[in-house]
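ugh ok so i messed up the first submission bc i forgot one of the chains. this is the corrected input, ALL of the components this time, i swear. 1095 residues overall. if the numbers dont match what u have on ur side tell me asap before i send this to the collaborators (the ones from the other lab, u know who)
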Amino acid sequence: MTEVPGQTAADLALDDRQTRPKNIGARIKRTEDPRLLTGRGTYVDDRQARGMLHVAFRRSDHAHARILSIDAAAARAVPGVAAVLTAGDLADDAVPVHAVSRMANYYATPIRALASDKVRFVGEPVVAVVAESRYVAEDACELIEIGYDPLPVVVDPEAAVRADAPLLHEEAGTNILVQREFKRGDFEAEMFAAPVRVKGRFRFHRKTPTAMENRSYLAEYDGGRDELVLHSSTQVPGIIRNALSEALGMPGHRLRVIAPEVGGGFGGKASLYPEELVVALAARKLGRPVKWTSDRMEDLTATSHGFDETIDAEMGLDHEGRVMALTADVIGDVGAYSIYPWTCALEPVQVVSFLPGPYRIQNYRGTVRAVATCKAPTGPYRGVGRPISTFVTERLLDMAAHRIGIDPRDIRLKNFIQDHEFPYRIGSGIVWDRSSFTDCLEAACKAVDYDALRRRQAEARAAGRWFGVGIASYAELTGIGSRISVAPGMPLNTGTETARIRIDTTGGITAAFGIASHGQGLETTLAQVVADKLGVRVEDVRIIQGDSAAVPNPTGTYASRSTVLASGAATLAARTLRAKVFKAAAHLLDASADDLVAEDGRIYVPHTNKSTTFKDVARAVYLEMGRLPGEAREELEAAGTYDPVLGTTTSASHVAVLDIDPATYAIRLEKFVVAEDCGRLINPLIVDGQVHGGVAQGIGAALYEEVVYDDDGQILTASLVDYVVPAASEIPPMQVVHMQTTSPAIGGFRGMGEGGTIGAPAAIANAVSDALAPLGIEIDELPVTPERLFRLIQAARSRTGDQE
Amino acid sequence: MKPAAFDYLAADSLDAAAAALSRAGGDGKVLAGGQSLMPMLNFRLVRPSILIDINRIPGLAYIEATDNAVRVGALTRHHAIETSPVVKAHLPVLTAAMQHVAHLAIRNRGTIGGSLSHADPAAELPMMALLLDARIAIQSYGGRRTEQARDFFVGSLATSLGEDEIVTDVEFPRLAPGTGWAFEEVARRSGDFALAAVGVTISVRDGKADQVRIGMMGVGETPLRAPQAEALLSGRTVDGALLDEAVASVRSVVEPNSDLHASGEYRRHLVGVLARRAIETAWRRAIGDLQ
Ligand SMILES: Cc1cc2nc3c(=O)[nH]c(=O)nc-3n(C[C@H](O)[C@H](O)[C@H](O)COP(=O)(O)OP(=O)(O)OC[C@H]3O[C@@H](n4cnc5c(N)ncnc54)[C@H](O)[C@@H]3O)c2cc1C
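and heres the new structure output, hopefully the right one now
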């Protein structure tokens, strides 16, 4: 294996000699939690500012209409209203931003603060009322009269692609905002030759991220300095800073975006929002702090949705169950706009990118069309594309196993890419580095005692009970570096991370990053890495993140990237800083830097009584001029930038165990097992938590959650009564098993924030199909709600003449 | 999602509350646990000119056993009913039903008076009131009256309460010792409003079903009884064939609505399944086959 810069044998040997690592791999409780759990975290909405104004939006109640007139006179007259803003009022204050891309056949829709000319989905912001309180702003909102000329509504993505379909964006000339195809091998001939062929039309319905904390923005503008600070509950303060710079025409050093405590994102806070632009523009225009906090209805209607694909897929296999070819046509319903910066291609294109999964499938064709409809835009959602690709491929494998008469476990073991075949380029072009595909499945089956479950199932079936076991295996690309992130040609690529670590005069150690933790516990994990690499204690390290001013190239946290990239950057920076500290310490101790060891904040020469501390070194360097020669008094600060170039492969196998009430059709999950390989674990407690949360969200996708629009484009799931999210009582006991194949990235880590959501829907769909195998039911649509199950079972029973 | 402006009065007596409600001339709203009213205010689905808060009125939250009934004050919280030994001793089916009402945080605030007045067709307490032939006591500025539960619920979220009336207490006749009972519910998540639920009480005389009551919810505009099925079972021994008949009868009388969570057809299916289970369990309890 070629050596990775920053991870060479010499680097590792030096780390080994100079430090006594004790934090990476330890189950350390999250240092964030005491403040968060005792209510002392400060979220955006907790922040107050003197003279602060509040925004309420008048949103479109039409799915598609031309705006003819806006009469806001009555709203402006309400006492306490500071301003009523329309697109026209902001025309000179900002330029639209575009999620551009080099992809062929792509149209970048303009993103504006407020709808101008046309509205394209119910919930789109049209007018902003800025007032002394949210109450007054909402009162005034009701008084605004908007004249609309309703246009034909496009709800069904398959209707939207027809030549005569009404267009959302006339300038694009089509509702197909992007179209792509991936091909490899002679898929046609192989499919034709395959003795076993299984196919289906699969449907994965639209979901919405529903973070606990709704989106919230507070902008403060200092007119004297022409400086704007936006506090935003965002996952991507750096990206928002860049977008604001473009939209508002302000350079980055006058703009600062701070993401303080953020209560979950799941992708829903990873894009630029019109409301964010409005708050920033209003603050600059009015010269007063302006805040908007989304209510739950706004969150469900106007935060980016996720998923929403229809996939026609076919798999061809030989008699032994080896896959010969796979083809798929995907339609992604991406809603009304191409979201910034990811573009509307992000979600549906990843479906075709990941369909071949961890399997040796060399003959592949995947086509995808991203189609605009009159719905909220889709954006990143935990798992992005992969929950859907995994659902389809894993369903097809089970259908094939059933047809051929082999066990679902065995068909996967037969098709996995084997250890000696890595790195392996799959049909869509993605390259997997070595990861425990086979070991994960075997470990999961062992943990769940798979053979015993199959015996239980035989007994259950004999007694007329419906008991199912479902497996899903997948691989995903995490911690992507420059080469992958540049590929789609988006407005900005984020394949690197920078860490800046400094020791101040008091010996305080501060490590600043461009990422933005919003529930992942990155303050803890990054402190573990910095502590080990410097040779100090976790509590000695303060982590700064979620602040666009922290490093020159701030980014955010998304795509299972932060641990891989930021840990790598922290490692590089810490090594440089350690060398500076050791140089000074060597003088103080009259020793050779090569003989020093740093541990728990102490620097010593083993087997002697020569020792000092980081704190003392800092004093000597900064404050006690006589103690060190000039050349040993370097500023105790270092930066490191890491680029994993390709990224890392994370893999897992999930097993769901469930039974179905044969009369009410209620599904009861009995157990869920995950065996995953995220490389070296930094903090197993946090990894387990991420898996648990991800699986819970996957359970939501499998059984509960679905955004529903009616034929007029009205959203029917605008409250949490109608949009059904699983709660603790719906989540079964979980067991997580860790494989630790070290990755080629610095530290050997792999990203793992999304995996739970990727495997769970497929595992549950397979388990439900397995339970209902006696009725010949194959689940091809998620979520599989009681109602859908009712219809499937009634239909099957009327086919077979079977009674309840 | 902020309510429109309203006045607020924390009443310190029923008389004061009734007077204020009367003064509001149909524009006032009683605030009890707030678990249904507050969301409606925030959605601006209701815009009362004044909220009359009854939470500080003394003596409105109690559970007491009388000679042949259990009386529950209107401000009694769901959690108090759920955990009351008096209720468990005399109305065990009510104890069972209360486990299905929302989540603990909501049960700590929500009240029986609020639940009956709100009259959600998929709520447990209205159905229990109907099943157990409860009598609802009502006060207004003009005086007091009582209403039988069967006359109280007139539609979805609609009752016979006048705009100036306040529920003060609910009287449930005790179940005779030895009465068999059961409560069966299906909801999408634990704590959700029911897709369908069935409550049954059966007393036995000479080995045969005697008094049979079947209550249903989630399958019509109001909670429902199933008089045909009740009659069918009376005087007979419950067995598989009779259960089939009862299930068919129950399914034939309901006209459930479709919504996002379930079609009318599925609800009709469910109510039959739940009726079978509840009748069977209640019967087995009644004949001493099950504790
Ligand atoms: C998430 C959630 C889940 C829920 N799930 C369930 C469930 O599964 N089952 C269920 O039964 N309920 C459920 N509820 C509703 C809950 O039980 C409410 O507490 C109940 O419906 C109303 O009681 P309240 O005391 O909160 O009434 P409030 O919200 O205060 O009032 C409701 C209505 O009744 C009127 N009112 C209140 N008290 C009186 C009175 N004494 N006289 C006259 N009018 C009065 C009010 O003016 C208002 O119109 C749920 C609620 C929530 C928020």
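quick check: The longest strand of chain B covers residues 196-205. that seems consistent at least. The mean pLDDT of chain B is 97.
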